[in-house]
């Protein structure tokens, strides 16, 4: 059966032109590359929107996207992947605890800024906050964690900080005893307010203008680069470096590498990179020029 036959016989017919329109729109808006092998995923995720809008074909949905800008966030939310977990890739949090925190405690700098650049439903950002809380004296240090994501729906979940009891075992027992509370008559738990207070959730598209001026001491951007092409990846890595302090850390996912674009970084551990000293001291103006 040909592509045309197969996809025209689905519940909502989708032509080659429809798929090309959708993947080109996804790339232009998010940087996500959708090769032909992702057709079934695209169909499955967007069929819900076609059904909700009471449309009959993907051609109608493409036309709707072209003429209704309010549908774009729904389109992006439907396509983006949000797999995450508390303390996922545990070695990153061990490095934060055992290597990075002692550097801060031994130094003169009292301002600490960390960015979770694809925070999804919040587990990564809260894992960072739990690692820092009690390790860093908040009376002596000014600590803030920025957590951003493209998907507006997952951010709402992240802000609430309420999760299924099924995932509780993924949080170390010493942290869960101090930083979570079970919700009576439910199979859920919530993150305690003192941990929530360290995290600030914002919607952000990595391909668009970044309003923050930095500098950051650590940037987590894990399992994001796998969806980007080489040019997009290089552009974002350059902007990350522009926002990092000298000696700041960029932490990426287990299946990712920045070796091809890492002239400004040194490798210090599995998927952990440290920013080399820049030739010109950091300033917001310098950051804006370098990020462009």
**Topology as a string of helices (H) and strands (E):** HHHHHHEHEHEHEEHEEHEEEH
The low-confidence parts are 285-292
Q: Note the main sheet.
A: 7 strands, mixed
Please tell me the overall pLDDT: 90
**In CATH, what is the homologous superfamily of the largest domain?**
Vaccinia Virus protein VP39
CATH topology (level 3) name of the largest domain? Rossmann fold
- The percentage of residues in β strands lies in 15-25%
Count of folded domains:
2
Give the overall shape. Answer: globular
Instruction: Assign the CATH architecture of the largest domain.
Output: 3-Layer(aba) Sandwich
Report the CATH C-level class of the largest domain. Answer: Alpha Beta
End-to-end Cα distance, whole Å, is 47 Å
User: Helical residue percent?
Assistant: 40-55%
Describe the structure.
Keywords: Methyltransferase, S-adenosyl-L-methionine, Transferase. S-adenosyl-L-methionine binds at residues 82, 84, 88, 124, 149, 205-206, 222-223. It catalyses: L-glutamyl-[protein] + S-adenosyl-L-methionine = [protein]-L-glutamate 5-O-methyl ester + S-adenosyl-L-homocysteine. This is Chemotaxis protein methyltransferase. GO terms for molecular function: protein-glutamate O-methyltransferase activity. It is a single chain. Helices cover 42% and strands 18% of the residues. The longest helix has 17 residues, at 90-106. Helix 3 crosses helix 5 (72-79), helix 6 (90-106) crosses helix 7 (123-132) and helix 11 runs antiparallel to helix 12. Residues 285-292 have low confidence and may be disordered. It is of the alpha/beta class and 292 residues long. The chain folds into 2 domains: 3-79, Orthogonal Bundle (Chemotaxis Receptor Methyltransferase Cher, domain 1), CATH 1.10.155; 90-291, Rossmann fold (3-Layer(aba) Sandwich). 33% of the residues are buried. The radius of gyration is 21 Å and the shape is globular. Strand 9 (265-269) and strand 10 (272-275) form a beta hairpin. The strands form 2 sheets. Strands 6-2-1-7-8-10-9 form a 7-stranded mixed β-sheet. Strands 3-5-4 form a 3-stranded antiparallel β-sheet. The chain is built from 12 helices and 10 strands.
């Amino acid at each position: 059966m040909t592509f045309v036959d197969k996809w025209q016989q689905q519940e909502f017919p989708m032509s080659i032109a429809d798929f090309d329109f959708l993947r080109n729109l996804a790339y232009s808006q998010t940087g996500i590359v959708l090769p032909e092998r992702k057709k079934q995923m695209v169909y499955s995720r967007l069929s819900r929107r076609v059904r909700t809008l009471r449309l009959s074909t993907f051609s109608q949905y493409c036309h709707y996207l072209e003429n209704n800008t309010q549908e774009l966030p729904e389109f992006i939310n439907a396509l983006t992947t949000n797999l995450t977990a508390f303390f996922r890739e545990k070695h990153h949090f061990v490095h934060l605890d055992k290597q990075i925190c002692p550097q801060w405690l031994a130094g003169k700098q009292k301002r600490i800024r960390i960015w979770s650049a694809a925070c999804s439903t919040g587990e990564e950002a809260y894992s960072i906050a739990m690692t820092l809380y009690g390790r860093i004296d908040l009376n002596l240090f000014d600590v803030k964690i920025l957590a951003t994501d493209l998907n507006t729906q997952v951010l709402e979940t992240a802000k609430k900080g309420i999760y299924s009891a099924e995932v509780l075992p993924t949080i170390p027992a010493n942290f869960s005893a101090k930083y979570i509370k079970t919700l009576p008559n439910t199979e859920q738990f919530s993150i305690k307010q003192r941990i929530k207070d360290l995290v600030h959730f914002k919607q952000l598209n990595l391909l668009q203008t970044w309003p923050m001026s930095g500098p950051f001491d650590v940037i987590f951007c894990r399992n994001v680069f796998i969806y980007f092409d080489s040019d997009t990846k290089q552009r974002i890595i350059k902007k990350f470096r522009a926002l990092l302090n000298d000696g700041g850390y960029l932490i990426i996912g287990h299946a990712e590498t920045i070796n091809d674009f890492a002239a400004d970084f040194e490798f210090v551990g599995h998927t952990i990179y440290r920013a080399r000293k820049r030739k010109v001291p950091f300033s917001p103006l310098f950051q804006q020029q370098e990020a462009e």
